[in-house]
Request: fold
Amino acid sequence: MLLRRLARGRWQVLLVATDTGKSQVLDFLLDGAAGRGEQIDIEAAGDVEVDEDATTYEAACTELLALIREHVPANGPPRSMPLSKPLGGGLYEFRKQPKGKKPRVAWFDGGPQTIVCTRGFSKRSKAETDPRDAINDSRKLMKQYKEDQKKGLIKIVDIPRRR
Amino acid sequence: MEDYADRLSAIETAPTYWLTIPLTEFSESLDRWLRLRSISRADLAKLAGTSRAHITQVLRGDANLSAMAMTKLAMAVGAVVHIHVTGKDVPLRWHEMHDGLLNTVTYGERKGPLRAGRLREATGGAQHAFQ
Reply:
């Protein structure tokens, strides 16, 4: 299993990645922060209306990225509401609650002082339940990570930080 | 291999990105203080003369608070706010003095009210005699 190291401090933050080093979590947050996340959904839905909450959603994605990249490495992950929510079975989600679409990042404990982020996803409203495919994927990735960890098959590649 | 360095570097130019740090630290440290003193969020709302919804927003790190607003919230529960400025690549840890012992502060790793006997654990378990 390939992982990208987003940040390392007292805690390290790892992201599940494809063989080419692409991280769905990072693409999700960076696209959302740049206002591109909404376009993907609009195209998929065949809708061309502008999302009135896009700016708020952009800010929330930016804040979520800063939480994971700057706050967690220094302080460890928040594990309770309102910044984080346990999803059961050792899986958690980092959460932001802007008006309208709400970004989430699923994560789990990957060993001593390590968290592994599996999937980024969003909810349309407070009432909407978490997307089942994202949660199921995250549980599968958590299981695969733990198996690969025992077999010594975890490979970590740093994401360099520009000075 | 996908290189995210440029995109991450670009997002670092947004003040919103760096504002997350003090707002999250404030919300985490306020939450910790409330648990340490067994003060509920409803009690804080009452003491600070604000709504529970606002307190939830503050504890979520979503309220863009002024230094005055942070100070008023802290004062309502008998606390004060400290702010520190340093380089963005410098790891920072807070320490508190309790009964002559230096306690390393950690956030977010415990749920529920903190009792005096759990202070050592809650503050990271690291205590050092202050020289």
About this structure: Residues 110-131 of chain B have pLDDT under 50 and may be disordered.
